[in-house]
Each structure stands twice: as structure tokens, then as C-alpha cells.
Amino acid sequence: MDARFTAEQEEIRRTVREVLLKRCGPEDVRAAVRTGDGYDGGLWTTFAEQLGLPGIALPEEYGGVGCSVTELALASEELGRALAPGPLLATSVLTAPVLLALGTVRQRADLLPRLASGELTAALAVPGPSLATALGLTGGGRGDWAGGGRTGGVQARPVDGAWRLYGQVDQVLDGHSAGLLVVAAHAGGYARSRTLLFTVRASAQGLTRVRRTALDETRPCARVQLRDVPAELLGEDAEGGAGRVGEALVTAGDTVATVLAAEAVGAADRALERTVAYVKQREQFGRPIGSFQAVKHRLADVYVRVRAARSAAYYAAWATAHGERVGGPALAEALEALRVAAAEGVQLHGGMGFTWEDDAHLYFKRATGDELLFGPAHRLRAHAADLAGLFTEGEVAV
Acyl-CoA dehydrogenase/oxidase C-terminal domain location, by residue (predicted)? Predict the structure, then answer.
């Protein structure tokens, strides 16, 4: 493995950071999350038109840049540092790989160029609190994660040669603003139930979307209700497509974990930087608290965690680009590093760290929110251990 980044990769990191320093400071983030979409549309346009960020990992034949997950991870690391809200994760990381893997020739030609240009945003709707399981991060990805039988989740049935969806998905990342929804639904009735994916346009009749209150406002989620909503099957064949759905989601899941790990590392690094700068200024007993040995030890421990998580995230990016699956353990390491860095930041900022006026709590909310959506860390590690066969039957992982 060559751990060095190319000049082009470093340029991507530098360019994204420069744009964010100018356009995505803490006050800009607070203003963006209060908008209807939950992000700065102008900044998204800049990323799309000037940097090609939405299509950075899509093939050139669909209007993408043709880079690997490594470049996407490096850009996401910078987005994590700024806690920049935006549809990149939902559109380019969660949904685009599934469309690329399962879509027909016509569907790919119609949708992927629009995603790559930033003209169209998308969201993946998985019923229940099962996104991490569906992606194969905390479970096998082939279980009954989309709801059960005749009831629960989203049901699909053919009507006059077309598909109609019924049901509700309570937690869809960026589901309130996406122009396209990819919905996991049961088809075939109770006896022959199978999970398929369907595309639903934002303008579809019978579709209701409501943005929900979220712990982390930079990760807006929506409740999506489908009442006799017209949908299009993703792929050619309903009978043979069910098996490919699980495989496509699990494959996409490793990319998701890798990108999220890099993003969490960026956030953890920035949280540590802010805390170090603060303890050099805050004084107690006539001296900066950063000069106290106990504070130095605590921040040194955080520094080691962040560096270890960065190494894991970079290795995961390289390995994923070469067909290996190590995203889950890397994500676990990164989420823990972010949680510890954010918690120490809140503690060392004192009472101010708990207030809305200070930015320390934003990083803590990002850490907690990501663990709720894609973790927690111990489940990520446990599933990775199961896949690797580390424990024989009868042994218990502690």
C-alpha cells in the first residue's frame, strides 16, 4: 500500500477547504440549517458547478469525474471539519451507487448525469431504524429490515402494469428536500414477500414529506408517507431483482462507512483544534488551563485517538477502492474518536460548552447523531468480527 496522496488528491482537499473557509463558517452553518432545505443551496451549486463534487465518484460516461472513493473521502473529511450541511451524503454516497448497481440502462442514463451535475438530489428511504442493517454495517443486510409481511414498512403492488407504494418511512436522511426517493418496499404479498427498490419522484401524487426535529440539525431527516404513490421498479426484473438488492446495498454500505469515517475524522480533528486553542486562552489561578498537566494528558489522549482514526479511515478508503471491506471497523474507530473529542471539548470549554452560542455542542451532536444513524461503534465492531469469523460458536465477544 502506498499511503501517499497524489497531487490531484491533495488539490481536491485544498480546494474544498478553501471554499468552506470562505462560505461555511459556524454562523453560515446555523443559518443554513434554518432554511427549508436545511442547507445552503448556493454552496451546493458551487460544489457542483465548480468542483464537480456530486459526481466525483461516478463514471465519466454518466457525467461524473471518474475518481475513486478515496477522493470522495478526502472531500468529505473537509466537509466534516466544517460540519457543512448538504445533500452530498444522501445523494452521492447513499443513493448514487445503488442506482449505478441496479438501474437499467435507461434509468442510469436518465438519473445519474443529473445527480452528477447537482441538478437532482436523491435520498434512500429504508423503513424503520434499519439503515445501518440494510447497508450491512451492523447486520447481514439480507434480513427482514424493510418491514414484515403484509403490514409494516412499505408495501408495493402492481396495478394495471405499474407499481403503487403504500406505507411510511420515519427517518429518511434529506428526504424532505430530495428530488428523487429510492424506496425499499415489500412486494409479492405475505407468501412470496421480497424486498425491492423503487424510484419515486418528489412530485408524485400521494407523497407527503415532513422534516422532523433532529438532534443534529446538520443531518436533517424527514418522515415520508406514501399513499397509493406511483413508483418505478429499480432494475429490470422483480422476480430476480430481490437478491441483487441486498448485495447492492451491502456493497454501497462499505463506501458509506468509509466516507463517514473520513467525515468523522475531519470533525474530530477540528473539535480538537478548537479545544486546544481555547485552553491556551482560558485562565484559572492566574495561568492558562492548558498548562495544567491533567489537561495536557486528556488532550494528548484525544490526539492519539484522532490520529489512529485518521489512519484507519485512510486505509479504508484505499482498501475500498481495491475491493476490500474494512469500512465498518474504520467507522467505529472514527465515531469513537469524534465522540471523545467532542465530549472533551464540551468539558474543557466549561459551562459555555453546553450553550447554543458555543460551537462545541455542534460537534457533540454530530457525534451522537451519527452513532444513532449508522452505529453504535460496538455493533459495527461486532458485525465486522462476525464477518471475519473471529469468534467460534459458543464464545462471546466482550
Answer: 259-382
φ and ψ of 190, to 5 deg? -70, -45
Q: Is residue 183 classed as helix, strand or coil in its secondary structure?
A: strand
| Residues 19, 21: Cα–Cα separation, whole Å | 6
Residue ranges of the chain assigned to CATH 1.10.540.10: 7-120
Q: What is the pLDDT of residue 352?
A: 82
Q: Which of 201, 104, 208, 192 is nearest to 156 (CA)?
A: 192
pLDDT digits (tens, 9 = 90+) for 22-73: 999 999 999 999 999 999 999 999 999 999 999 999 999 999 999 999 999 9
Contact 179, 202 (CB under 8 A): yes
3-state secondary structure of 214: coil
Secondary structure element (H or E) that encloses residue 155, with its range? strand 154-159
Location of C-alpha cell 423503513: 127
Q: What residues does CATH 2.40.110.10 cover in the chain?
A: 123-241
**CATH 1.20.140.10 is right for the domain spanning 246-388:** yes
Superfamily of domain 123-241: Butyryl-CoA Dehydrogenase, subunit A, domain 2 (2.40.110.10)
- pLDDT at position 145 is 63
CATH 1.20.140.10 domain extents, the chain: 246-388
Name the 3-class secondary structure at 230: strand
- What's the DSSP call for residue 224? E
CATH architecture, domain 7-120: Orthogonal Bundle (1.10)
Specify the DSSP class assigned to residue 218. Answer: T
Q: Residues 6 or more apart from 25 whose CB is under 8 A from it? A: 82
Looking at residue 398, its pLDDT comes to 44
Which stretches within the chain are classed as H helix?
A: 7-23, 26-33, 41-46, 69-82, 88, 96-102, 105-117, 131-134, 238-279, 293-321, 327-348, 360-374, 377-388
pLDDT in tens, 99-158: 999 999 999 999 999 999 999 999 999 987 778 988 999 887 555 566 554 456 899 999
